[in-house]
Amino acid sequence: MPNEFPTIAALNLMPILPEMILAGMACLILLIDPFLPRYGRNVSYALTLVTLIVLFIVTLLQMSSEVRFSFGGMVVNDPMSDLMKLVSYVALALVLVMSRGYLRDRGMDKGEYYMLALFGLLGMMILISANHLLLIYLGLELMSLSMYAMTAFKRDDGRASEAAMKYFVLGALASGILLYGMSLLYGVTGGQLMLTDIAAALSSDSPSLALKAAVVFIVVGAVFKLGVAPFHMWLPDVYEGAPTAVTLYLATAPKIAALAMVIRLLVDGMGGLMLDWQPILIITAMLSLVIGNVVAIAQTSFKRMLTYSAISHVGFIMLGVLAGTQAGYSAALFYTIAYVVMSIGAFGMILLLARQGYEAENLDDLKGLNDKNPVMAFVFLLLMFSMAGIPFTLGFWAKLAVLQAVVGVGLWWLAVYAVVMAVVGAFYYLRAVKFAYFDAPTDTAAVNPDWNVRGVLALSGLAVLYFGLFPTSLVGLASRAFGG
Amino acid sequence: MFFSSWPILSIIVWLPIVAGIFVMSFGAGRASVARWFALAISVLVFGLSVALLPGFDTHTYAMQFVERVPWIPQFGINYHLGVDGISLPLLILTTFTTVLVIVAAWDVIKEKAHQYLAAFLIMEGMMNGTFAALDAIVFYFFFEAMLIPMFIVIGIWGGPKRVFATIKFFLYTFLGSVFMLIALIYMYFKGGSFSILAMQQLPLSMNEQILIFLALFIAFAVKIPMWPVHTWLPDAHVEAPTGGSVILAAIMLKIGGYGFLRFSLPITPDASALLDGMMIAFSLIAIVYIGFVALAQSDMKKLVAYSSISHMGFVTLGIFVIFMIYDNAINGGSGIHMALEGAMVQMISHGLISAAMFLSIGVLYDRLHSREISAYGGVVNTMPWFAAMMMVFAMANVGLPGTSGFVGEFMVILAAFKANFWIALLAALTLIIGASYTLWMVKRVFFGEIQNQGVAELNDVNPREAWMLGSLVFLIILLGVWPNPLLDLMHATIEHLAQQALTSKL
């Protein structure tokens, strides 16, 4: 029997206040931007940052350890969604601060950029809080369409256009696969769309063939955005082809939303089918670890190397998810947050080395960084060792959390595989450090003097070191997100 | 002691690290300030570590100066430090060697001196942390992290093939240690604690013990290093700057031996007893075969590097020969303590001797910029004081009675006799092989006619170098003629360790 649609008064709009503010502000920026002076988008930029700060405060005030349903159960706010949203705001704000100079130098500083970034964020927030298959799809598409457009933002750049096209086609395919899985699930569960209802409808018997097919399609659609192998083909081309400022955007906050989608669908919705999706995730995680780490070794482009390293990192995130325990989910979330912190810094390094008319995308461009700027070189060192998972940095605890979760459910052979792959991966991080520290500079160009870039980089380096020594607070947040 | 309420171990661990990061910020322009500051910190830390001695109770095996606070409760990790009779001597060796390294770099390292000093201070803190850690994850944390500064030291200030050498060093050690991490996590779930002391009590089945033993073995065998996973060491030593070689040989190798004593023996006693044949075989191969390899070297640093591997063979032999002694049960197993104490003395002694050898090679290298034996000859004519001190080091390396090198090797050989005659015989071969490669090198470098213009123009050691090497001469001879204080320090702990190692967990 279909639910009676509630009246406006019963809807309780408060839980989606941040989403409403964001949607309103994005529209406002879109409207007033054409009336602003032609050059310099200071007002749009400032408004965007103010929006993010307001969102941060509102979400912080609404934080609660309870699970709150609203809109007749379609929207869920829980500790996980609160934390994920807060991290997304911060990540997006830092990305925008860093990108400012880069966009200006390349004639990309347009109002649409900020508007798209905000609509993308809105998509992520809907995805993070979705408890309904349609809402998940809606959030996913809103996020993805903004990202396609941002990738193609430099319209005359052939490489960027190619990347956007590839992204769009493959992304649409993944969305289609996801929808197909959802429709199967809808059929099997007798017309359930709400994730909590689906979970209740699934909990009993052994899965039918149709349900198994639904699991496969949903897993494929869900992990696509994370860039898990073998669904990673789009990632290197898109990350490399997109303007670096956009790459920075793609590589940070959307990862959190993508993890949210995986957890909402697989854990909240199909938690009862864990035995069916766990083997798929094991295979994808193992593939991601080997493809990401081995192929990264062959790269000469720093940007592409980081992309493959991203694939290996999501392999670790998958390890946390597939453990299927509270500890595993919070380890996956912790790892994702750590990855976002590290990739803000790592992709930000490209912005540091780039200058007007020159994109510093190759490993060679790192040469002599320690001679040019020891502080930034040290930040770079911390980031690379953090990505490699060496202690004194955040990355170590992220890996430890995941390994502990995996060994905790008896999959110690998988942990051994993961650490061996981590050693393989260490090679290319070491090689990057080698360029920055052991090689003499090949040019005299100074590093980017933009204090926005340097400031955020220093911040990410400090965060990596601080949480490398005192990870307790971050670990605690990630574990409370799953009721720990 | 008046500071008994201080977290003195934490200060010994973290002061150098914080000071190192501070030194890094000095910039290249203030190298002289950086040197004095680094020296002051290292001397202070050395003083603090020596100050542990009066308050240290040698009658108990229990951990002392213990600090314990929760670190990451969600993962069950405590910040847990403490020292006993096997970690305290190694801790003091570390702080002492760091002072030497900073002195050795004084006029020598001109490029980015502040970063060099910072790397060594940070490394000192991490190595201290490794020896003082009582929580397995704290141990791993420092064990792994110390690779970063060493990677940088070899990579920036090293020789022509430094990039290859330093990446090989890093990956080799990293690959070894990750298996240990999995083993530690496994034991955490088995026993519910990351405390090393709790892991030592943990009952484990034979299969579990074998797997855990192998995981730990890979980590520590690479570190110490044992044949056949030793190949990173000669590369790293040859390319590393003098200070890097000194720390590598004097301290980092000892962490492998320390790991066997702290983890392998007490946690997996039955697997250790089962696999002792393999360990003894590898040790003997290191002692004999690597000794011959050392004989064939033309590069002084490589020669000393191989000699280090050969000497570390005595450490692993001493550690794992105890099971055979126990089985033979001659003299009520008194050789067991001798073997373990011999291994410990050998570690301390080799720390001093290898530091001395590498510093001496550094003294020559600073003058003529060559490590080839053939580039020298007749050095005694122009550097008599230096040659005299080098002679002491060479004799100690050979294991001449009266030097510290004799004590450890002799104890291990003597203990090995109680296990098996042939093992002892092969181990004792080192006295011949070691003498051959060491004395042959000394002969070719120091004695004979002055070979070339460069040697003819050499200046003898300056006061800085004289102090640096003189202090080592003093300690090597002191430990050689009067090792009792060191033995007393570790006796209670070794006794307890032997008991743990020989008590079956099955």
Cα Rg of chain A: 22 Å
Strand content of chain A: under 5%
Question: How many DSSP-defined strands of chain B?
Answer: 2
Helix segment count of chain A? 21
Q: Return the string of H and E elements of chain B.
A: HHHEEHHHHHHHHHHHHHHHHHHHHHH
Most strands sheet of chain A: 2 strands, antiparallel
Question: In what order do the strands lie side by side in the largest sheet of chain A?
Answer: 1-2
Given as residue ranges, the uncertain stretches of chain B (5+ residues, pLDDT < 50) are: none
**Beta-strand percent range of chain B:** under 5%
Order of helices and strands of chain A: HHHEEHHHHHHHHHHHHHHHHHH
Spatial strand order of the main sheet of chain B: 1-2
Query: What structural class do you assign from the helix and strand content of chain B?
Result: mainly alpha
Intertermini distance of chain B:
43 Å
Query: What's the multimeric state?
Result: heterodimer
N-C termini distance of chain A: 36 Å
Q: State mean pLDDT of chain B (0 to 100 scale).
A: 89
Q: Tell me about the biggest sheet of chain B?
A: 2 strands, antiparallel
By helix and strand content of chain A, what is the structural category?
mainly alpha
How helix-rich are the residues of chain A, as a percent range? Answer: over 70%
Enumerate how many helices of chain B there are, as a single number.
Answer: 25
E-strand count of chain A: 2
SSE arrangement:
The complex is a heterodimer of chains A (484) and B (506).
Chain A: H1 8-11, H2 17-32, H3 42-62, E1 68-70, E2 75-77, H4 79-105, H5 111-129, H6 133-151, H7 158-188, H8 195-202, H9 209-224, H10 234-241, H11 244-251, H12 253-269, H13 274-297, H14 302-323, H15 326-353, H16 369-372, H17 374-388, H18 394-408, H19 412-437, H20 451-469, H21 472-480
Antiparallel strand pairs in A: 1-2
Chain B: H1 8-24, H2 31-50, H3 52-55, E1 64-72, E2 77-83, H4 87-104, H5 113-132, H6 136-145, H7 147-157, H8 162-191, H9 196-201, H10 206-223, H11 232-239, H12 242-267, H13 269-274, H14 276-295, H15 300-320, H16 322-328, H17 334-368, H18 379-382, H19 384-398, H20 404-419, H21 421-428, H22 430-446, H23 453-456, H24 463-481, H25 484-502
Antiparallel strand pairs in B: 1-2
